[in-house]
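Give me the fold.
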Amino acid sequence: MGLLLTLLGACSLGQAEDTTYMGRRLAPTMHYLGAEWLMRETRESEEAPAALLDALQLSPGEVACDVGAGSGYHTLRMAPRVGETGQVYAIDIQPEMLDMLQQRARDAGLRNVRAVLNTQADTGLDPGTCDVILLVDVYHEFSKPAEMLQSMRRALKPDGVIALVEFRAEDPRVPIKPLHKMSKAQIMRELPPSGLKLVREVNTLPWQHVMFFQRDDGPDRPIVPAQ
């Protein structure tokens, strides 16, 4: 794990243009050369991705959007859940990541995955497109978080949700560099000002927060995050 984390730190695209956002130092984007870390065998025990997938509550025919999809670890798992009548948009800022993802989707025989190359400030998604937008350990790397949050808010359907997954900064036992962790307090400092409300959370993953945000004009009632 230590070697992999060292590799992850070395294989980055460099520091974001703006160094801080709402008191948080912005992390550099992981370079596509570090994609092997995303596919590590220990990820199942460290992150429980199957439990995360269940928590998304995807249904056939829905549109799921994997922002910061990388080489497609979660994208390819979401695709069967939405089925042939559904769609998964895989969003990433690096074309090399999307090339890897598309090859893996072809190898798996998945026809409902569409790759989208985004910019630092825009997801590239059409308004009112997504039932679920998934961000796994990627939001903290956005160089323009406010702009990306607005882009994702526009892309949500009225009752759609953003599933924000971040390594827990509150837990020193999580062996991830502090720059790549977020606390619930920081998450709640950043997302609600962009017109989003917390409507659900899952607190049972080994290392990560899972917090579901809806547009502030959406139908669900806001909740207070558990301590």
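Residues 1-11 have pLDDT under 50 and may be disordered.
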